[in-house]
Design brief:
2 helices; binds zinc ion; globular; alpha+beta; 37% helix
Length: 84
């Protein structure tokens, strides 16, 4: 697969790790009241993705990486489905 952010070619698992390590800024983690959400935009089609998280805002510290792992997993599914 090709990285949607920089065109690096890698297997899905390696690409996922690459996204988490190199493109963390592509995922925005936000807070609405007590709840958290993440959002990002697919660089290939500008589709905006936003998803609420079950974790409470007070638990965010230390979970940013985990949240990004979930977000980039979603992005890879989207890329496979829509741009594969
Ligand atoms: Zn990349
Ligand atoms: Zn897309």
């Amino acid at each position: 697969m090709k990285c949607p952010h920089c065109s690096l070619e890698a297997h899905r698992m390696d690409l996922h790790a690459h996204l988490v390590d190199e493109h963390e800024d592509a995922v925005t983690i936000g807070q609405e009241g007590e709840s958290l959400f993440f959002e990002m935009t697919c660089p290939a089609c500008d589709e905006h993705m936003k998803q609420p998280l079950r974790k409470r805002a007070s638990m965010l510290r230390g979970y940013e990486r985990e949240i990004r792992m979930v977000a980039f997993d979603l992005l890879l599914y989207h890329v496979q489905d829509q741009h594969g």
